[in-house]
Structure formats: C-alpha cells, structure tokens
Amino acid sequence: MSRRLLLLVSSCLLILAARTTPAATPASPNTPTAPPSILFIGDSLSVGTFGSSIQGQLIARYGASNFALYASCGSSPEHWLANEPTFVTRCGFRMTTSTRSAYIDYVDGKRPPAVNTPKIEKLLALHKPEVVIIQLGTNWLDDFAKESSTEDIRKKQAVLHNLGTALRGKRVIWILPPDSSKFSKSAQATVREIIRSSAYKERFEALIDSRRLTHYVRGKTGSDGIHYNGEDAIRWANGVMENLVYVLH
Length: 249
Fold this sequence. Notes:
By secondary structure, the protein is of the alpha/beta class. It is 38% helix and 14% strand. It has helices at 3-16, 44-47, 49-62, 120-127, 150-166, 185-202, 230-248, and strands at residues 38-42, 67-72, 88-89, 93-96, 101-104, 115-116, 131-135, 171-175, 206-208. The chain has a 7-stranded mixed sheet with strand order 5-4-2-1-7-8-9, sandwiched between helices. A two-stranded antiparallel sheet has the order 3-6. Strand 8, helix 6 and strand 9 form a beta-alpha-beta unit. It starts with a helix and ends with a helix.
C-alpha cells in the first residue's frame, strides 16, 4: 500500500470507529455492484484545474449519470446551507450534471457574471447521492490569518454540525485544504483541526489530508499562495483520486 493511502487509512479508521451500526455484508466477488451516485461540492480550487481533473477521473470511473459537481469561487461551508444567506460568487462557478454543465470564469481579465451558490439541501433532493465529496475550508483560512478565538472556532463548528445534520445518512468524504504559502502553518492547522474534529463528531466517512499530497512554492506552484497551476493541480487531483478509489472500492 502506498504512503498516500496509509495517510488516508489512519484518518478513515478514526472516523469509522465512531460508527455504532455494523458494516453491511460485502457482496460476493462474482456479484457486480452498481457504482455509487456522487455529489461533489467545492470552492475556487474546484472551479479551476483541480476540479476539471477530479471531475474527469470520477466520471471515467463511476459514470456521468452517477455524478454531479458544483463549485463556487469564494465559498465556505456555511454558504451551502439553506439556513444561511445566499452567497453570490463573482469570481467563477463550475457545474456538471448528467444533463447540463456550465463553466463561468474570468475571460481576458473580465470579471464573470454573478452566480448564486446552490444550497446543499436542494442538491441532495435533486441528485439523491449516496456519496458526498466536499472540497471546502480554504476560504476559512482568511478568518484565522492573524489569530483565532474560541468564539470563531465555535461558530465554525456550529456550521459543520448543521452541515452534518443535512448530510445525515450519506457517505461523506472531506478533501481538506491543500498546502498554502500565503497562510501560516498555525492557521492551516487550526482549520484542519476544526474540520477533523467535527468530521469525527458528525460521523463522516473519511478525510483526505491534502497537505500531505501538496507543497506550495510561490512562483512555481502558483502566483497567489493559494491556487494551484495546471501541473500541480493535476498532481493533487491524482493523489486525491487514488484515495477516493480506496475509500469507494
């Protein structure tokens, strides 16, 4: 087993240990199993090359009819909840379903049109996924760029509890933010721990620690310390996909 998968297994076992119901009896090796239906939501990192790469790989493996992706630039977990104000993204949006698709981004430096970020409750009702993959949390780093307070952390935990309630009964896999050269190691560790601890409480199935799969070198990986250029974004997507296949096999 590769080092990448070992990193995930430790997280996966930690989350799975919280389950109180027995695992389902595995199907016979000779019994074909239907691919899972998947809903993927993310922020600007999934609007970009990472999103297009992971989208292509998931569709190739599990089928276009079983897959839907929505990514909203600038969004954080709270923006996807129905009990929160509508978040309007003005910096990019990606949507792919079995029947339609849209990709909205800057063109020749011109700002893209505004798009409302969809609510997870509506997406769950529309697509009825078995698996929900979440790539969010990067935009929370701004909130901890200087220092963190107990109140800030408590608010984020409350958001994740509400998200966990909305996702009850789904297999949830969270892709943690990748390495960033813009934000301190402390800020990145704080956001990672908020998500990790909440994932355990909400019984999410697995976490993928993207910082173990990435290393941001400003000027090489990208220009802003956050977003990944093509080659590095694809490398990150490949590492994430390897872990997803392991969890979903």
